Amino acid sequence: MALSHDLSVNEILSGIFGSISLTAWICLLLPQLITNYKAKSAEGLSMIFLAVWLFGDLANLSGALVTGLAPTATALAGYFCISDVILITQSVYYNTLNARKARQRTRSTESEASEDEPLLQPRRRSSSGLPGSHRRHSMHHSESGLGPIKRIVTGEDDTPDSNPWLHNTLSVMAIYIVGAAGWFVSYKVGAWDKPEAPEEPTTESPVAILGLVLGYASAICYLCARIPQIIKNYREKSCEGLALLFFLLSLTGNLTYGLSVFTYSPEPEYIIKAIPWLLGSLGTIVEDCIIFYQFRIYSKSSVSKANGISEAA
């Protein structure tokens, strides 16, 4: 089969954006995985959010395969599924482990109470009933020795005069640079050689219709997935346990993923069949912005409460 090494401007742009998006998604898990590991808890994450996200990624991968989307879009869809499984596995592990420890503490407390040793029990009750207080305590205890690397990776900082948003912005800029450089390297080694006349299913074929249905299913899942997380943050008035950089990389990945799909071909027929993927990637940016707003207002609220507790003590 004859191969062509010449790419159109649209294909080059699509490849660069797709490479940046792939870099963002490859790094996406690290901030949240490290945050969960340091806290030995995944209480900050909504399991419904993760489950719906995984279902959306499975539909996304299936639709991309049968529709013939851009190669980077298909590769990303496969990686999404793998990364979801890793994060869900870690979260289930910590949730199960902590639930078992909580039951053991409850039985131990009841045993001590029956032996006439309840003198210090009231002090324990002062913070355990507050939403998110358990993971705030565990994260403070386990992260107290972390330095600048932790601040950049997780987006959190205990130093009053620091600016985690600046640190994370620099990290995102690095993602753009590495992603773009990665595409140029792959192009030079011939990774983007392609058949001269690729075959794509027509929009009227059953395969194309199935792909479109799967694409819209994934878009709906993506748009709905963050709602449980937003509600959880609102109810607990806290974003503790969440890595800010996790959502910044998600925003970067979604934005460049959408641009990768959009710039692959200017043909109206292709744009129409790519609409669900554009909705799924670009539509979630609005919800990510809501979570960023929650990070801002709830971090200020946590600082105020902490200062009040310190003064009272």
Automatic annotation (TrEMBL):
InterPro entries for the chain: LAAT-1, PQ-loop_rpt
Topology in membrane: Multi-pass membrane protein
GO molecular function, one term: basic amino acid transmembrane transporter activity
PANTHER family for this protein: SEVEN TRANSMEMBRANE PROTEIN 1, SEVEN TRANSMEMBRANE PROTEIN 1-RELATED
Keywords attached to this entry: Membrane, Transmembrane, Transmembrane helix
UniProt-listed Pfam families: PQ-loop (PF04193)
CC annotations in GO: lytic vacuole membrane
Compartments, record wording: Membrane
SMART domains the record matches: CTNS
Stretches the record annotates as Disordered: 104-153
One record GO biological process: vacuolar transmembrane transport
Statement: the UniProt record of this protein carries the keyword Membrane: yes
Entry protein name: Vacuolar membrane PQ loop repeat protein
Transmembrane regions: 12-35, 47-70, 76-97, 165-185, 205-225, 241-262, 274-295
Catalysed reactions, semicolon-separated: L-histidine(out) + L-arginine(in) = L-histidine(in) + L-arginine(out)
Superkingdom of origin organism: Eukaryota
